[in-house]
Amino acid sequence: MKEKLITKKELKKLFHDNMTMMIGGFASVGTPEVLIDAIVESGVKGLTVISNDSTHPEQGLWKLISKEGVVAKLIASHIGMNPLTGTKMNEGTLPVELIPQGSLAEKIRAGGAGLGGILTQTGLGTEVEEEKERITVDGVEFLLEKPLRADIALIRGSIVDKKGNIMYKGTTQNFNPLMAMAADLVIVEAEDLVEVGAIEPENVRTPGILVNYIVRSECHE
Amino acid sequence: MNNEKEIIARRVAMEIEDGNVVNLGIGLPEMVANYIPDTIDVEFQAENGILGMGGTCKAGEENKDVINAGFKYVQVKKGAMFFDSATSFAIIRGGHVDVTVLGVLEIDETGTFASHKIPGKKVPGMGGAMDLVMGAKKVIVATTHTKKDGGKKIIKKVSLPITAVSKVDLIITELAVIRVTEQGLVLEEINENTTIEKVQERTEPKLIISKNLKVMFSE
Asked: Where are the transmembrane segments (chain B) (predicted)?
């Protein structure tokens, strides 16, 4: 079995300037805080970040957005709880593409599921529709939302085995299982790392085949 | 019951029926849960991945892994379920949510409304609102009748970026219950402390007065 467990220091070699990164989590629940710290410490710049929201001050994406030049573009559904994101957006220093939360989820799912996009009525007649195609199916109009993929997905699992199989507790799932499917390289932050077989197969929500590397959430070096 | 938000939340709660699956928006709509009687069974959905959501947690009783879509720590009821965001919005878009309640910045006489952006000022983003109004069987707007500065919220044409086109069924404010119909806005109920004329003064489109106009909470 390939050793997937790496340290925070080894992780930094995987980050490069101008990458597209998906980051799991909703607010700071299911958010890979240690992996986000590693991005900051690595000094990479110019990232396109895809995440549901920009968390609240001092946590999650705030740690990236508050550093000059780390995030070049943010794709998210909600930025209202982190005033810094809105301020930077209004100043013109941080372009933000707002996507309805359900469409964001499905675009990422499509990216990971080999689909050419999804058709939804969400956003019809709004600014979300700009530059997107309308497709009529049996007389009903839909918006074509294209798939989203990333170079790296950074996700968080409550219980992770050494193969990378993941179980999520509570509401920590959110975008994590979707992002695990939609990136070339997937790194999971494991809150609890266990031996293979310790998670019952019916409780595995993200299969280990999708996970390239594991970093423990208490890992500080 | 003088607080206008309490009046709104309490009146919205009366729209919710036994067995309904309900999603409450962030802020004022969240208060609706406090006014649902124990005699009816309501399944609360939170778009970050819960069916069977309970109340917000008291300090010290939080589970760090369980929040609602408004970033608050919440309890879950027996028989609850957690799921990912794609499943959550399949439930929402797929028509499996009976009622959604949300706030607005502006709404017009066709039920077109704005809630996600004041360009150059406040830009919270739409979150799940656009999907919720597209998929829920009944869309209720819970809002104060006018803006904080007294300006009108219920207007002839929405001026802010549109969140959804013609998707609202009912507007509930501290002054009135207004139904959105193809003919226009129908005033169905008014607060006992106001008059039709006062409600109209604070509403830009001409209100159609229901033949069965009632006083709020009169039943």
From this structure: none
**Nearest Cβ partner for A102 among B89, B124, B125:** B89
Q: Which helix (H) or strand (E) holds B74?
A: strand B74-82
Q: Which residues pair with A78 in a beta bridge?
A: A53
For testing the chain B interface, which of A97, A122, A124, A217 should be mutated: the one with the most B CBs within 10 Å? A122
CA distance B168 to A100: 18
Q: Which of residues 167-206 of B touch A (CB under 8 A)?
A: none
Which CATH number fits the domain B4-215, given the four candidates 3.40.1080.10, 3.10.310.10, 3.30.230.10, 3.90.1170.20? 3.40.1080.10
Specify the pTM. 0.96
Which chain B residues are within 8 Å of A109, Cβ to Cβ? 86
How buried is residue B146: exposed, middle or buried, by Cβ count under 10 Å (0-12/13-18/19+)? Answer: middle
- B52 has a chain A CB within 8 A of its CB: no
Closest residue in B to A106 (Cα–Cα): B86
Residues in chain A: 221
Question: DSSP strand E in chain A: where?
Answer: 20-23, 47-50, 71-76, 96-98, 118-120, 134-137, 140-145, 150-161, 166-167, 183-194, 213-216
Residues of B annotated as catalytic are 47
Of A27, A102, A121, the CB nearest to B128: A102
| Alpha-carbon gap, residue A217 to B20, rounded angstroms | 40
Are A126 and B48 inside 8 Å of each other by CB? no
Q: How far apart, in Å, are the Cα atoms of B59 and each of A27, A109, B53, B80, B139?
A: 19, 36, 18, 22, 32
Out of B64, B66, B86, the one facing A109 most closely (by C-beta) is B86
Residue range A71-123, pLDDT digits in tens: 999 999 999 999 999 999 999 999 999 999 999 999 999 999 999 999 999 99
Contact A173 B131 (CB under 8 A): no
Spatial distance between the Cα atoms of A27 and B87, rounded to a whole number of angstroms: 18
Q: What angle do CA B80, A156, A3 make, to 5 degrees?
A: 130
**Is B84 in CB contact (< 8 Å) with chain A?**
yes
CA dihedral A110→A112→A116→A119, nearest 10 degrees, is: 0
pLDDT in tens, A181-220: 999 999 999 999 999 999 999 999 999 999 999 999 987 7
Edge-first strand listing for the sheet containing B154-155: B113-114, B106-108, B154-155
What integer pLDDT is reported at residue A2 of this predicted model? 87
pLDDT bracket for residue B2 (50, 70, 90): low
